[in-house]
Amino acid sequence: MVYDVFENREGITLLGCMAHARRYFEKAVGNDKIRAEYFIAKVQLLYAVERKIREEKLTAEQITSIRELESLPVLNELEGWLKENVIKVTPATTIGKAIAYSLNQWEKLTAYIKHPFLEIDNNLVENAIRPTVIGRKNYMFAGSHDGASRSAMIYSFFGSCKMNNINPQEWLADVLLKINDTKQSQLYTLLPNFWKKP
Q1: Number of alpha carbons in the 13 Å side-chain half-sphere of residue 79
Q2: How far apart are the C-alpha atoms of 79 and 110, rounded to whole Å?
Q3: Disulfide engineering: 96 pairs with which of 11, 91, 104, 163, CB 3.0-4.6 Å?
Q4: What was the pLDDT predicted at 132?
Q5: Do 111 and 13 meet the contact criterion of CB atoms below 8 Å apart?
Q6: Could you say which residues of the chain have pLDDT below 50?
Q7: So what's the pLDDT on residue 149?
Q8: Residue 99: its pLDDT value, please?
Q9: Contacts of 164 (CB under 8 A, 6+ apart)
Q10: What whole-number distance in Å separates Cα of residue 19 and Cα of residue 16?
Protein backbone atom coordinates (compact mmCIF):
# COMPACT_ATOMS: atom_id res chain seq x y z
CA MET A 1 0.00 0.00 0.00
CA VAL A 2 1.23 3.52 -0.79
CA TYR A 3 0.96 4.64 2.88
CA ASP A 4 3.51 2.02 3.94
CA VAL A 5 6.25 4.13 2.31
CA PHE A 6 5.70 6.77 5.02
CA GLU A 7 5.56 4.36 7.95
CA ASN A 8 9.25 4.52 8.85
CA ARG A 9 9.71 8.23 8.21
CA GLU A 10 10.51 10.34 11.23
CA GLY A 11 7.72 12.62 12.44
CA ILE A 12 4.94 10.78 10.60
CA THR A 13 2.21 8.91 12.45
CA LEU A 14 0.01 6.69 10.32
CA LEU A 15 -3.54 6.66 11.57
CA GLY A 16 -6.20 4.06 10.86
CA CYS A 17 -9.90 4.78 10.52
CA MET A 18 -12.13 3.08 13.07
CA ALA A 19 -15.21 3.85 10.96
CA HIS A 20 -13.63 1.88 8.13
CA ALA A 21 -12.89 -1.07 10.42
CA ARG A 22 -16.45 -0.93 11.78
CA ARG A 23 -17.84 -1.06 8.22
CA TYR A 24 -16.19 -4.45 7.72
CA PHE A 25 -18.08 -5.75 10.74
CA GLU A 26 -21.35 -4.17 9.62
CA LYS A 27 -21.00 -6.13 6.37
CA ALA A 28 -20.32 -9.28 8.40
CA VAL A 29 -23.54 -9.14 10.48
CA GLY A 30 -25.24 -11.53 8.03
CA ASN A 31 -22.30 -13.92 8.23
CA ASP A 32 -21.70 -13.98 12.00
CA LYS A 33 -24.17 -11.78 13.87
CA ILE A 34 -22.83 -12.43 17.38
CA ARG A 35 -19.18 -11.64 16.62
CA ALA A 36 -19.97 -8.70 14.33
CA GLU A 37 -22.36 -7.07 16.78
CA TYR A 38 -19.91 -7.58 19.66
CA PHE A 39 -17.22 -5.60 17.81
CA ILE A 40 -19.69 -2.89 16.73
CA ALA A 41 -20.98 -2.47 20.31
CA LYS A 42 -17.44 -2.05 21.67
CA VAL A 43 -16.62 0.51 18.99
CA GLN A 44 -19.76 2.44 19.97
CA LEU A 45 -18.29 2.78 23.47
CA LEU A 46 -15.17 4.35 21.93
CA TYR A 47 -17.28 6.79 19.93
CA ALA A 48 -19.20 7.73 23.09
CA VAL A 49 -15.90 8.80 24.66
CA GLU A 50 -15.03 10.88 21.57
CA ARG A 51 -18.48 12.49 21.65
CA LYS A 52 -17.94 13.46 25.29
CA ILE A 53 -14.53 14.94 24.40
CA ARG A 54 -16.09 17.11 21.67
CA GLU A 55 -19.09 18.20 23.75
CA GLU A 56 -17.04 19.14 26.81
CA LYS A 57 -14.29 20.88 24.76
CA LEU A 58 -11.51 19.29 26.79
CA THR A 59 -7.85 20.32 26.85
CA ALA A 60 -5.12 18.12 25.33
CA GLU A 61 -4.18 16.76 28.76
CA GLN A 62 -7.81 16.00 29.60
CA ILE A 63 -8.31 14.24 26.26
CA THR A 64 -5.27 12.04 26.81
CA SER A 65 -6.40 11.27 30.35
CA ILE A 66 -9.99 10.35 29.47
CA ARG A 67 -8.87 8.21 26.53
CA GLU A 68 -6.41 6.31 28.73
CA LEU A 69 -9.03 5.86 31.43
CA GLU A 70 -12.08 5.00 29.31
CA SER A 71 -10.97 4.05 25.78
CA LEU A 72 -7.74 2.15 26.38
CA PRO A 73 -9.38 -0.66 28.41
CA VAL A 74 -11.98 -1.14 25.65
CA LEU A 75 -9.25 -1.22 22.99
CA ASN A 76 -7.18 -3.72 25.00
CA GLU A 77 -10.24 -5.92 25.41
CA LEU A 78 -10.99 -5.69 21.68
CA GLU A 79 -7.42 -6.55 20.72
CA GLY A 80 -7.54 -9.67 22.90
CA TRP A 81 -10.92 -10.61 21.42
CA LEU A 82 -9.62 -10.18 17.85
CA LYS A 83 -6.57 -12.37 18.54
CA GLU A 84 -8.75 -15.01 20.18
CA ASN A 85 -11.32 -15.05 17.37
CA VAL A 86 -9.05 -14.81 14.30
CA ILE A 87 -8.23 -18.52 14.70
CA LYS A 88 -11.90 -19.47 15.18
CA VAL A 89 -13.24 -18.10 11.90
CA THR A 90 -12.68 -18.97 8.26
CA PRO A 91 -10.39 -16.32 6.71
CA ALA A 92 -12.37 -16.05 3.46
CA THR A 93 -15.67 -15.20 5.20
CA THR A 94 -16.78 -11.61 5.75
CA ILE A 95 -16.25 -11.96 9.52
CA GLY A 96 -12.81 -13.50 8.89
CA LYS A 97 -11.86 -10.56 6.65
CA ALA A 98 -13.21 -8.06 9.18
CA ILE A 99 -11.18 -9.55 12.03
CA ALA A 100 -8.02 -9.91 9.92
CA TYR A 101 -8.28 -6.33 8.66
CA SER A 102 -8.66 -4.91 12.17
CA LEU A 103 -5.80 -6.99 13.57
CA ASN A 104 -3.48 -6.01 10.70
CA GLN A 105 -4.35 -2.32 11.20
CA TRP A 106 -4.50 -2.41 15.01
CA GLU A 107 -1.48 -0.21 15.71
CA LYS A 108 -2.81 2.44 13.30
CA LEU A 109 -6.40 2.11 14.57
CA THR A 110 -5.28 2.79 18.14
CA ALA A 111 -2.66 5.49 17.42
CA TYR A 112 -5.17 8.26 18.18
CA ILE A 113 -5.09 7.31 21.89
CA LYS A 114 -1.59 8.78 22.34
CA HIS A 115 -2.23 11.97 20.39
CA PRO A 116 -4.96 14.28 21.73
CA PHE A 117 -5.40 16.15 18.44
CA LEU A 118 -5.89 13.05 16.31
CA GLU A 119 -9.34 11.64 15.60
CA ILE A 120 -10.70 8.11 15.93
CA ASP A 121 -11.60 8.14 12.23
CA ASN A 122 -11.19 10.26 9.12
CA ASN A 123 -14.87 11.21 8.77
CA LEU A 124 -14.10 14.93 9.18
CA VAL A 125 -11.67 14.80 6.26
CA GLU A 126 -14.09 12.79 4.11
CA ASN A 127 -16.86 15.29 4.82
CA ALA A 128 -14.55 18.20 4.01
CA ILE A 129 -13.54 16.80 0.61
CA ARG A 130 -17.02 15.55 -0.36
CA PRO A 131 -17.92 18.72 -2.33
CA THR A 132 -14.72 18.32 -4.36
CA VAL A 133 -15.42 14.66 -5.04
CA ILE A 134 -19.06 15.33 -5.97
CA GLY A 135 -18.09 18.22 -8.25
CA ARG A 136 -15.12 16.51 -9.90
CA LYS A 137 -16.95 15.83 -13.20
CA ASN A 138 -18.26 19.39 -13.28
CA TYR A 139 -14.72 20.75 -13.01
CA MET A 140 -13.89 19.14 -16.36
CA PHE A 141 -16.17 21.71 -17.96
CA ALA A 142 -14.70 24.91 -16.49
CA GLY A 143 -14.39 26.35 -20.01
CA SER A 144 -10.61 26.67 -20.06
CA HIS A 145 -7.50 26.09 -18.01
CA ASP A 146 -7.70 29.69 -16.74
CA GLY A 147 -11.35 29.15 -15.77
CA ALA A 148 -10.41 26.02 -13.83
CA SER A 149 -7.56 27.91 -12.06
CA ARG A 150 -9.93 30.71 -11.04
CA SER A 151 -12.49 28.18 -9.77
CA ALA A 152 -9.76 26.50 -7.71
CA MET A 153 -8.78 29.86 -6.21
CA ILE A 154 -12.38 30.65 -5.24
CA TYR A 155 -12.79 27.19 -3.68
CA SER A 156 -9.58 27.74 -1.71
CA PHE A 157 -10.73 31.15 -0.48
CA PHE A 158 -14.11 29.78 0.59
CA GLY A 159 -12.45 26.77 2.22
CA SER A 160 -10.24 29.18 4.20
CA CYS A 161 -13.36 31.12 5.23
CA LYS A 162 -14.90 27.91 6.50
CA MET A 163 -11.76 26.98 8.47
CA ASN A 164 -11.73 30.45 10.07
CA ASN A 165 -15.49 30.52 10.83
CA ILE A 166 -16.05 33.43 8.45
CA ASN A 167 -19.19 34.00 6.41
CA PRO A 168 -17.80 33.80 2.83
CA GLN A 169 -20.40 36.21 1.46
CA GLU A 170 -19.49 38.88 4.05
CA TRP A 171 -15.78 38.32 3.42
CA LEU A 172 -16.09 38.56 -0.36
CA ALA A 173 -18.31 41.66 -0.25
CA ASP A 174 -15.82 43.46 2.02
CA VAL A 175 -12.73 42.35 0.09
CA LEU A 176 -14.16 43.44 -3.27
CA LEU A 177 -14.73 46.93 -1.84
CA LYS A 178 -11.21 47.17 -0.35
CA ILE A 179 -8.99 45.40 -2.88
CA ASN A 180 -8.41 48.39 -5.21
CA ASP A 181 -7.32 50.65 -2.34
CA THR A 182 -5.02 48.06 -0.72
CA LYS A 183 -1.27 48.24 -1.36
CA GLN A 184 0.18 45.17 -3.00
CA SER A 185 2.39 44.53 0.05
CA GLN A 186 -0.76 44.49 2.22
CA LEU A 187 -2.98 42.25 0.04
CA TYR A 188 -2.34 39.32 2.40
CA THR A 189 -4.40 41.16 5.06
CA LEU A 190 -7.49 40.50 2.91
CA LEU A 191 -7.00 36.72 3.04
CA PRO A 192 -9.57 34.96 5.26
CA ASN A 193 -7.03 34.03 7.96
CA PHE A 194 -5.95 37.70 8.35
CA TRP A 195 -9.26 39.42 7.54
CA LYS A 196 -10.95 41.47 10.25
CA LYS A 197 -14.71 41.80 10.05
CA PRO A 198 -15.67 45.52 9.63
Answers
A1: 13
A2: 10
A3: 91
A4: 65
A5: yes
A6: none
A7: 80
A8: 96
A9: 192, 193, 195
A10: 9
